[in-house]
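User: Here's a chain of 273 residues. Predict its fold as tokens.
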Amino acid sequence: MKTQDNSHLQKLNIRRTNGGRVNLLKYNIFGMLTGFASYHRLMIEVFTRKNFGERYFNLASALTVAIFLAMLPVAFTYIQYGIHINTMRVYGGLGGMVEPQEFKVKWWAYISWYAFIALFLKYSWKHKKAQRPTKSLFDFTKYSQYDGDIHPIFREQKFSFIETNTKNIECYFEPAPFFICGFFLALIGQYFGWFLMLSSIVYCVSYIAAYEASKHDLLSQIDQIILNEDMEKVFVKGMAGRVKYRGIVPDSEDERRQLLPFVANVTPVLAVS
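Assistant: Prediction complete.
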């Protein structure tokens, strides 16, 4: 007897079984911040962590951040100078409404900026030296993407309004000192304070996004387990279960049972909110 090959059915988009809801605005913001959060996180992590994995921290990335930071004040100055010149031209063309003023560069406002770069390079070099080469090219005892040990001082903190755990440390405790420091730097006229506050916020949101993504990955696995457990009862036998099957199904129970392996592996659809 010739047997029929039904393997191609696994590729079919058989009727989805359940609906969910996803906040597109939240996930788009999380995705956008996560996309450029790497360098902002690096600026903070070199001061708060140690024992990075070989592929998580590398000196080339640190040098890229340092060069970028060093060039930003120059770029800001040229932009300010361009705005100043254009403003003078506009008002001059209107009959000299304002007196021409000399453009002055506030280099003192960048003292903390370049001081941070120096400290950043110092700690980056320290981490590079700590990554000692192993005897073997492939070391099965070390995770190459390890994001570093959290500083013990964060685990020692106790607050009545928030629990001290790894999630809260990564999302709030680690970036908080840098945000506060940036705030006070901004108050005394140091431009780097604003950039440090921005990096702290990006650091915070990127870790919140990482935990949110991890939670939804686990929820998807749990949903798949429930689908696999209940689909025979719901789809084949037509009984009530933890999931619902929406769609027209074959009248024959035998035919529904033949389709069951393919239906049970369907991922739930997410509705947009």
